[in-house]
Amino acid sequence: MIILGIDPGLRTTGFGVIHKHGHKLRYIASGTIKSGEGELPARLKVILDGVAEVAATYKPDCAAIEKVFVNVNPQSTLLLGQARGAAICALVSHGLPVAEYSPTQLKQAVVGTGRAAKEQVQDMVARLLALPGLPGTDAADALGVAICHAHSLDMVAIAGAAQALQILQGSKPARRSLRAVAAGIANDPVVPVAAKRTVRGATSSATAIDLGALRMRRGRLVG
Question: Which of 16, 169, 176, 179 could pair covalently with 30 via S-S, beta carbons 3.0-4.6 A apart?
Answer without folding.
Answer: 16
